[in-house]
Amino acid sequence: MSRRTTRPGRSAAAAARPSALTAQSPCPCGLPAAYAQCCGRMHSGALAAPTCESLMRSRYAAFVARDEAYLLRSWHPDSRPPGIEFDPGTRWVRLEVLETTDGSPFHTTGTVTFRAHFTDRGQPGTLHERSRFVRHGGAWVYVDGEFVD
Questions:
Q1: Judging by DSSP bridges, how do beta strands 123-136 and 90-102 pair with one another?
Q2: Residue among 144, 120, 129, 147 nearest 5 (CA)
């Protein structure tokens, strides 16, 4: 996910507000597991994403959790921004993975097409993107994405 949720005039303190996500919460990535047993392991560094789809799901969960450190760590250094500002008015609601091409433990590149549902100050919206991933230093990283709609 490449969407930078920056809004002019928002303070860094307000944008850094922690999410309500706990270890026992359902994982926001949509898989049937608790956050601590799913994407939380990747966010903490206990597990590396085995596929580009698992990395994409964990990056979505990192947007929900407002985990800037993980998002930057999982972004290719050639395309990584210096930082991420989270918009306090945006709430990520649901992820739909629509298509995955390559990106298995045996590939070096892959793409994931997804639709991320959100609300922005109470108004529903979607982000439809085809994200590109590569292996860098043996780990899957996000390179870039193109908006589909």
A1: unpaired
A2: 120
